[in-house]
Every structure is written in C-alpha cells, then in structure tokens.
Amino acid sequence: MQPLFWKALEGIGTEGAAAADWRFLMGSEWEAAEPFLLQIRRTADTVIDPDRPTRRLTLYPEGESDFVAVADEPPLRTPLPLTQEAATVLAPDWTKIGRVLGPALGFVAGDWSGAGQTRQIGILQAQRRVTRPVYLYLPAGTLGDAQCLLRDMAALPECALLVPSARWLNPQVVKAAGERGIQLEPLAERLAQVPENRGTLLARAADVQIPKVGASNRAALLDVQPDWSWDNLHMEVDLSGKITVRYGQQRGEYRFPKKSGRGYSQGIEILGRIAAKGFWENPPSGDPDHEKLRKAFRRLARDIRGLVPLPGEPFEQEGRQWTPLFHLKLTGVVEMLKDQRDQLDEEE
User: Fold this and answer.
1) Do 158 and 173 sit in the same domain of this protein?
2) What is the pTM of this model?
3) Is residue 334 pLDDT above 70, yes or no?
C-alpha cells in the first residue's frame, strides 16, 4: 500500500467513487490497490475529467449497460465512453486494509464491528500484557473531515490511531492525542519506510501502566491471534472466584475480587447462572434489583472483553436474553456449597 493509495483515498473518501476515478488517481499502482477496494452496488453520477482533473463529467446511460461521460459546461469535450465496470462505485474495504496493515505495523488485526469514520481494526498486545485497541481513521471526503476526526478522538480510549497521512497531524489533533494517550501513526509516511527501519506500533508505544482495579484494564490472559473468534474460546468458571480460559494450546487464569466479607464476586455469580441456564436475562424493569444487575452484567461483559480481547461482543442478545458466544462450563460447585455451610456454621 503505497503513499499514492492514501493520497487517493483522502481525495475520494469512504463513500467511494467510480472505478475510473480510482484508476486515474492510482495510475501504475492501480492493480496493487484494487484488492483493497470494495464494490458498491451502485453507479457513480460523475467521474473525473482525465483532461481537466479539477472538474467532473456527468454520466449518462449509453446502450444497454454502458455509459458516456459528458461535460455539462464549457469547455466542451468529446464524450467519454465508460463500461459498467468503470462506472461502478468502489469504496475502501476496512477489513482487507486492516489485515494488510496488521503484519506491516506489528499489531493483531481482526474484524471488529463498527461504523463511521474511525473504526477499530485490531489490538496492540505485548505478551500477556494490557492490550490497546488499534483504530483507523478514514475521511469521508467532505469539508468537515478535520472536525470529524477531533470528535471521534474525544470518544476514544488510550489507543493507537492510524491516519492516512501526516496532513491530519495538525496542532489540534496532536494536542488532543497527547491529552487522551493516543498514539498517532501517519500511514503514508510510515509505510514508505523500508520494513527494517519502520519499526512496529508496539516498539514505539509508551509503556502501558496497568491500573490497579478493573478486569477490563488488566493484562490479557491469552496472546490473541488473527482470525480468533468467540465461538472457539472455552471458559471454565469456578464459583470460588476463578475463571480459566482456553483457546487451542493457550491457557490463562483470572480470579475475580471478592465482595466485602466472604461473599462471592457478582461477576462470578452471574457467570455461574449463565453456565447453569445457558443464558442471562436481566430482571424485569419493575424489579428492585433490575438496575443493579443490569449494570453488573454490562460490567462483566466489559471485563471479559478486557481479559480476552477478541473482536466483537462475547454475548449475543435476543430480546431480553443474552447468550454467550463462547463455551462456558461450571466447576467448583461442591467447594462453594462447603464454604456456604462453613459460613452458616460460624454465624450460628
């Protein structure tokens, strides 16, 4: 992915343009760029005038499937014939771009769901340490793109943020990045370097301080690999407070903190209920515990994503029920009952 690709993308934007426009802007690099463009099922309204690139030509149907591009204003020119393929809109393919950038820059790429101009395309993970998300910003190709980037940054956690080129690194953006712990990476300039001089995102990242509380901010239990998904993750929940996760040959453990006294972690209790029933269902809105348990389940889902930072959500919602996408097994029931009996004996 050469600098010319990012320059063309900055001019066209994520809404895309006719294949003829991409081909004109990419020149000899067109064939290398084409795999990273997604065909949109619509025809462009206009195309670039190859003789006067600052103006647009309007497309009109010609025959059964082809088109002709016409100058609606002087200076007039000979109509430009175009095939259906050349007139079809192509837009950047976020997933394919992410999968190429991952190995090139040293992060784990994945299919995180998302929308808008700034989307997560991977994670940055030192071995068994806190992970940081990797986001990619692609402009829409409008006058409001610079403000859109600043708005998106205001909602981002500490992360690595990839932008098409250094033109986006204005003083406001650099300041906002410093305030929020965002590592900015201009792709055109970074990828223009030879691999041995380019370094990796991880090598240039500041050391990540592991917060003292919150499983979502703790070290990941596994070294996540590209193409991992929740349906291949196995989790055992021990009601004494420990979870064990396995993915292939990798294994990790985490113990949730106890509540005050000798009570069990609410996250563990919820996982135990899910393992027993196969799903979680929040109490009805009129139930006095509704809000407390709703927040506890959301916190649990966030903690699981932090401990095992796979793409997407760990639970699938259908109505009021939330079903785990991973394999969940309950252990330690006998030990839990013994602890509860001992606690009752002490109270007596």
Assistant:
1) yes
2) 0.73
3) no
